[in-house]
Amino acid sequence: MTRSPLPLPGDSPAAGRDAADSAGRVAGGLAGRVPDLGGMELLVAVARLGSLGRAARELGISQPAASGRMRALERQLGVALVRRSPGGSRLTESGALVTEWARKVLEAAADFDAGARALRGRRDSRLRVAASMTVAEYLLPGWLTALHVRHPGTAVSLAAGNSVLVARQVAAGEADLGFVEGLDVPADLDAAVIGHDRLLVVVAPGHPWAARRRPLPAAELAATPLLLREKGSGTRQVLDAGLAAHGGDAVALLELASTTAVKTAAVGGAGPAVLSELAVADELSAHRLVAVPVAGLDLRRELRAVWPAGHLPAGPARDLLGLTRRPAPRD
């Protein structure tokens, strides 16, 4: 059994809060008293080059701007830092002391910048995507191919699942960007519509519905056992919502966890299926499936990208989101 270390003096929630409050007060006060990095960088350059003019040229600013920056630094600190003469600029005793402090601050700032760039590089070296089945199978391959051209060094992982599962993964921080087909977006996610889709009722050519001359009544569809995606999928949500006014939720003949499985069963003649027009375009063109019009039933839906609320996608995730606004290349 592992023992917790003995608490040290001050190791308590109250002490932790006091320390955080103290750090906040110090940081707030420092913001008004510590010079900005530009002023300290100028002072260090003057100490090294012996001339305000040469320091200005090295930093890419005009000499009047450098003079103004130095005067502002001296006013802020309340001491003279540089003595100017026709032969150049020399540090005062106070200026030499401040310069040593400034060097340490600039070194720390450089370390901070390097660390921040490393974090950005780590973020930009991988992208975790979660997507509903239709988007994952029929849209994302083209988008990810285009993304690879922009970010060839980025490792992309894709988790495909139903819309409810995708939303949970994004909210839990397990994916940087998600794509869903459902009707609703959870409150802890932000979303953008990236496209539109339509569900179709499809049957094998030998099914009696394939020869119908009139649209199928929605009530008959509601009463007929169908090949369906599982509960929680965007396809199932949209279908159940559409059938709510015509007898209730869809009746499952077979409930399958992937679009491909439902489509394969429909092509094999197992029964009618309801699938995205994106998923069945090739089968309709090859006459392996037949679309059955349904009277009075709107099965259009929006496709959305989702990400944690209040945190805009960045790096490759931002670029992938931008690519979704363009037509995906087709094979």
Would you write up a description of this structure?
The chain is 47% helix and 21% strand. It is α/β, with parallel strands linked by helices. The chain folds into 3 domains: 37-122, Arc Repressor Mutant, subunit A (Orthogonal Bundle); 125-193 and 303-323, Periplasmic binding protein-like II (D-Maltodextrin-Binding Protein, domain 2, 3-Layer(aba) Sandwich); 196-301, D-Maltodextrin-Binding Protein, domain 2. Strands 3, 4, 5, 6, 10, 11 and 13 form a 7-stranded mixed sheet that branches. Strands 1-2 form a two-stranded antiparallel ribbon. Strand 1 (82-85) and strand 2 (88-91) form a beta hairpin. Helix 2 packs across helix 4, helix 2 (37-49) packs across helix 5 and helix 3 packs across helix 4 (63-77). The longest helix has 32 residues, at 93-124. The radius of gyration is 32 Å and the shape is rod-shaped. Mean pLDDT is 86; it is low at 1-27.
Keywords:
D-Maltodextrin-Binding Protein, domain 2; 331 residues; alpha/beta; Arc Repressor Mutant, subunit A; 3 domains; 13 helices; single chain; two-stranded antiparallel ribbon
Quaternary organisation = single chain
Give the amount of beta strand, in percent: 15-25%
Gap between N and C termini: 59 Å
Q: Work out the helicity level.
A: 40-55%
What is the H-and-E element order? HHHHEEHEHHEHEEEHEHEHEHEEEH
Cα-atom radius of gyration: 32 Å
Name the shape in a single word. rod-shaped
Remind me, CATH topology of the largest domain?
A: D-Maltodextrin-Binding Protein, domain 2
Q: What top-tier CATH class of the largest domain fits best? A: Alpha Beta
Into how many domains do the coordinates divide?
A: 3
pLDDT averaged over residues: 86
The parts where pLDDT drops under 50 for at least 5 residues are 1-27
What structural category characterises the helix and strand content? Answer: alpha/beta
Helical segment tally? 13
Q: Report the count of strand segments.
A: 13
Keywords: DNA-binding, Transcription, Transcription regulation
GO molecular function, one term: DNA-binding transcription factor activity
Organism: Actinacidiphila cocklensis
Pfam family, one: LysR_substrate
